[in-house]
Amino acid sequence: MTTEYILAGFGGQGVLFAGKFLAAIGLKQDKQVSWLPSYGPEMRGGTANCSVIISDQVVGSPVVVNPEVVLALSLPALDKFESKIKPGGTVYIDSSLVARKVERKDVTAVYMPATQLASDNGVPKLANVIIMGKMLAAYDEKLIKAALVEAVGEKHKAMIEQNLKAFAIGKNY
After folding, report:
1. H or E stretch covering 151
2. CA-wise closest residue to 1 among 85, 59, 40, 86
3. How far apart are the first and last CA of the chain?
4. CATH superfamily, with its number, for domain 2-171
5. 2-10 and 69-72 strand pairing
6. Residues 42, 48 contacting (CB under 8 angstroms)
7. What are the pLDDT digits (tens) for 39-95?
8. Is the CB of residue 140 less than 8 Å from the CB of residue 21?
9. Which residues pair with 34 in a beta bridge?
């Protein structure tokens, strides 16, 4: 089984971190994983996206053209990637920042006010992890914690508990 993801938004929203976190989940499950970041030269405030592939088989190319799952943290991200989602796929949208609705009828749209939830719960920079909590709610808590520890890294280990709190907010939303 192979699942292809595109996570997209503005630089500074933690899109690349979310992709690393997702890739770490795949690695912790002994899957084949590809993580391919893409961002504009201005990074913070510019566009950013990453492609993640998690597979039982060797990943031949890191390029994702038609993902099963899209995470859109900005209107330009939704505009760019909505048409590329495979029929039957899912798009997760931060409805705090994206007012428009998904136009396609052959995909599932999940709207979550992630930025507002982050602000309301004292984790203003973790809207990305909150919406990942919704997207990855079915995963085992031990797996999530292990992947977050890996994605956060030693340098920022003080942020692990806040990330776990943010994930739980999204999961329970």
Report:
1. helix 141-152
2. 59
3. 28
4. Pyruvate-ferredoxin oxidoreductase, PFOR, domain III (3.40.920.10)
5. parallel
6. no
7. 766 555 667 999 999 999 999 999 999 999 999 999 999 999 999 999 999 999 999
8. no
9. 53
